[in-house]
Amino acid sequence: MIKNLVFLLPFCFLLSCKTETPSPPIDKKAIVDSTIAAFQKTLLEQQIDSVFKKYHFNGSIAVFKDSIPLYRKENGYSDFKRKVKIDSNTIFAIGSVSKQFTAVMILLQMEQGKLNVTDKVSKYLKEFQLKEYENITIHQLLNHTSGLNMMGGKLMFKSGSDFYYSNDGFNALGKIVETVTGKSYDENAVELFKKAGMTHSSTGDIFKGNNFASAYVGNGNTVQEVANMPKRLGGKEIGTPAGGILSTIDDLHIWNNALYSGKILTPETLKQFMAKSAERRHAIFGKMGYAYGIMLNIGKPNSYFHSGYIKGSPSLNIYYPETKTSVIILSNIADEEKGKGLVFRPHIEVKKITDNLENTLTQLRSKH
To answer: Quick one: pLDDT at residue 153?
Structure first.
C-alpha cells in the first residue's frame, strides 16, 4: 500500500499543476493534502484492521492528524461478565503513560520558580537525605538515571552514569509535587487535566463513574478480573505518579495536541521536556532515547511515545511532531502467560505501520 502511495502521488501533483483556461485558482496544496489523507485512511484501515483480526484485539485504537481522525476502531468488552462493549467513552488505565503527566507537573512548578530540575531531591524529601541517595537530582529521577530501583535499596549504579527504569523514582517526583504545591497529587492532576481540556480523565484514587474498563488477565475465552481496580493503582505496588492515571482515546489525543503545541509548557520548557538525555534498551520496543517521562525513536521518524502496563492493561501513546499525528492504543486484557512480548505484539505492529507511513510521507513532502 505504501508503494502505491509513493507511485500514485506524483500523478496527483502533475494533475494539480495542469493549467486550464482562466478559472478560479486551484489550491494545489489542498488537493495534495486531501489525496494524502485519503491514502492514509485507506492504508490505516487495511493494515490496522488486520491487526485487530489477527490478534482478536480487545480494546481501542485511533490515529489523528492534528484534529482530523484518520482511523478509529473499538472492539470487545470493557466488562466481560456483563458483556459491556468498549466504545468511544470507555476509560482505561494507562499505566506508565502516566509518567509524562508527572514530569509535566514537575516542570510547571519549575516555571513558577518553586524548584529546579538540577536540585537535589534531598532538598524536598527526607527519605533522600540518606548518604546513598543524597546526590540524586530531580533531573535524574525524570530520565531514570538516578540508579534508584526501589526506595530503601542500594543504588544500581552511581547517579547519572547509567539508565535504570524506576517506578519509585517517579513516585518520589509525585511527592515533590505535593511538597512544593501543598496539594495532593490527585488535586494537581485534576488541575492539569483541566488546563489541557481533558474532561474524562482521573486518577485511580478519585475515579467516580461507570465507563471504566475493568482489567483482565486471560485470553478472551478464559478471563480473570484484576481485583480492586482502579483503586489498587494508588497502592505501593504501582503508585499513582508512576502509573495510576485513567484516560480515554479522545482525552489522550487532546493531551498530545495541547502539550506539543505549547499550550501547557512554555516553548523553552517544552524543549527541555522533549530533549533526549538518556538511552534505554526497552525489552519490547528495543533501543530508544529517553527524555522526561517520554521515549524517543533513535533514527526516523521523529516521535515521542510511551508504553504503559499495569496488570491486564497494556497501552501505547505516540506523537509524531512533524505531521502532528497521534496514535493511541488502549486495552484492558492481557494474556500474561504468553509474556509481555506477545501481549504488546499488536502495539508493536501498529507502531511499525505508523512509523513506516510517517517516513513515507516525510519523503514525499521533501520531494515536492
So the answer is: 94
